[in-house]
Amino acid sequence: MQETAKLELNGIPYELPVVTGTENEKGVDISRLKAQTGYITLDSGYANTGSCVSSITYIDGDQGILRYRGYDIADLCEKSTFMEVCYLLIYGELPSAGDFVSFKDKVLYHSLIHEDMKSFFTAYPGHAHPMAILSAMVCSLSVYHPELLQPDQGAGEKDETMAHLLSKVRVLAAFAYKRSVGEAFVYTKPELDYISNFMHMMFTTPVKLHQTDEVIRKALDVLMILHADHEQNCSTSTVRMVGSSKANLFAAISAGICALWGPLHGGANQAVIEMLEQIAADGGNCKKFMDKAKDKNDPFRLMGFGHRVYKNYDPRAQIIKKYCDQVLHHLGIDDPILEIAKGLEELALTDPYFIERKLYPNVDFYSGILYRAMKIPTNMFTVMFALGRLPGWIAHWKEMIDEAGALKIARPRQIYTGEPLRAYTPINQRAA
Ligand code: ACO
Question: 333 CA distance to ligand 1 centroid (A)?
């Protein structure tokens, strides 16, 4: 029998259908509520609102579970690659050997950006934040591919658009970095895999060829897999929202990049390192900063802690921490920042404030330490996140656009609390 929820408004009972997910998650379907009752629901920050049904990613925040298309995140990190995960997220299944070769070839083929775009980079001031550059460049790609902007693309055109983005965002990210350090742009090499190519574009110079280090390549590949999707987070919801107006995919991804930039979302990885550096400069007194974070009169928050969905350890943080130790050991780096991070975590895990509020380290807490060890500058951390999250954004856009007839423009409602109707007063009659 169909499960229903009962709601009574002004003595009138209403029955609302209940939607059940694969893992028995329950949602009350209120899509007809306004039409039936005249009421809307109010849920600031959408903490209890499902904006869609989706078959891409499953999270159980209480159990610390994260799965892409049914595959456990730890399993994918150990056995798969970022490229394969891109395919899995976007197309729903792991690729056959033949399909995977075609996919990788297509992504590699589209790595060239229009030469004119190089002048855009040099027009930015040297101190420009690479997230600003990345977002602007991704939107600018639309100018060079007018054939890929139609709102009702066929499957082939969609594949092309997605491959352009998967390939070019990586190139644009590396070019943004090269611009910030004043070095010449470096192009992809056909014989390198996706991650090695990115490292090559970042770190090869005319006088030194970057050699792939397998331990670092694997760690970066895992970082990208861990970031690849996280269901309806702020940036993914932004991509869906912009895409729901049938704006093209370049525009939607560009908006997603901007949403990711904020320190409460992907920008937290940069904020974490800045916070750890601040603690180090202050003599390494973790307790002092813990106390600041708990003080309700102080806006300071412990960056890299807490999550809207995870009320248990973020499974991604656990995996990153392992790779962090491994890479630092491999490179022989003794980073005092890592010790501060571990000290902070230890304090937080036994502190009643953090225990009561279920605040655990999130994905961003250790990722910055890894990027730092890889010699990626702090202001590039969120760009790295964007690179990782790209397949998730694309997969969600595709899932939504493929709904075709069922696609609805995203348009939340509000409860108006401003002034009631007022008579207009001409300016010369207003009080000074
Ligand atoms: N430090 C100190 N206190 C915190 C923290 C923190 N990092 N995070 C939450 N709290 C406290 C809040 O003050 C609040 O306390 P109260 O109940 O006494 O008022 C309680 O915990 C609940 O916090 P909310 O802000 O209501 O939780 P929400 O789900 O809205 O926010 C968020 C989640 C934004 C991640 C928050 O935990 C935060 O600001 N963390 C720091 C930034 C961060 O690391 N962001 C990255 C998130 S992961 C990602 O996006 C990839």
Answer: 31
